[in-house]
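Notes on consecutive records. When two proteins share a document, each keeps its own sequence and its own token line. Never mix them. Below: protein one.
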Amino acid sequence: GCDASVLLDDTSSFTGEKSASANVNSIRGFEVIDSVKSEVESLCPGVVSCADILAVAARDSVVAFGGPSWTVQLGRRDSTTASSSAVNTNIPSPLMDLNDLISNFAKKGLSAKEMVALSGAHTIGQARCLLFRQRIYNETNIDSEFATSLKSNCPSSGGDDNLSSLDATSP
């Protein structure tokens, strides 16, 4: 989230976002943020939040993949708590169709254009076969070459945790 709550590990007082069903076995790279935070802390102790590091890293990732750049407003504060249930009720399902996604984002005050931008950013990296198998084997509105390339790593059954890129330009 915008407050880096996704970085928090579960504690005795809350179950966080890392282990929420929408994120488990999906969201990765925490060690990269830990490493950046350690370096920044060695130069500027207590000044830069993990939330700002995440925001800058997100922007830089988009730029590295050939997308646009933008000025990142800094000054976010890190969360001290997180909610697995909030994630499970607010993150749209990867199985939603276009109309459901538009409706889901509209409920949060976001336009279809904003939904496309946020969803497109989520194609950077990899996803588990479990989350897209139905589409590559059953839908006809997907580029056939791309679907075939995904099938090579994602069999019609099994291999749920196999990872594949959702964008042909992603490594």
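Protein two starts on the next line and is unrelated to protein one.
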Amino acid sequence: MKTLKDVISLKFKTSESEGVIFHGEGQQGDYITLELKKAKLVLNLNLGINQLGSIYGHTSVMTGSLLDDHHWHSIIIERHGRNINLTLDRHMEHFRTNGEFDYLDLDYEITFGGMPFSGKPSSNSRKNFKGCMESINYNGNNITDLAKRRKLEPSNVGNLSFSCVEPHTVPVFFNATSYLEVPGRPSQDLFSVSFLFRTWNPNGLLVFSNFADGLGNVEIDINEGKVSVHINVTQVKKNRIDISS
């Protein structure tokens, strides 16, 4: 396909911070890749190689953050020549691609949810998308519906299910005064705790526990945006350990 205009739209939700959402490439050096990197949305686009080499035609735009929150996010990419509108959750960014070409020339297959292994270093370092997509629309074609009705030929559908599996994790929201207290294990000489968290606040207490028999305590907190671990042990000479990251 050689197009002057493109409109690509879809919705996604995922708990993964990395993954290719959409990819297409051609023999003239053209490519378009939409992917998650560090839970941000990245669009890479090149409308073809010119005399100076493909690097000058390469354009990369990053938008959004914390997109691995397992909530639905909507994307619309509108291209007319070198002019691009990228809309994420109704926030639109306008930019113009580098290079000197207006047409996107994709002679190979277009893939959603990953990219085919091409032998290039860029392809095998990228993760496939893991999560849910819906309402995939490519230049007026309802890809989701066509795939479900097996009307895409030729196509390669790898291990897809037309339902959205919810994760088994149960999130807990804490306000400024709430806390969760659980019973300790006094007969154990091992203290182990693991959890995921997300906050906009630079300071706050995450975990606190006294050791049995007055042997000290452990405290995990956020201080100026850094996670700090403080361990106090009463029966040894070096009785305090502080770790910050």
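For the record: Helices lie at 121-124, 143-148.
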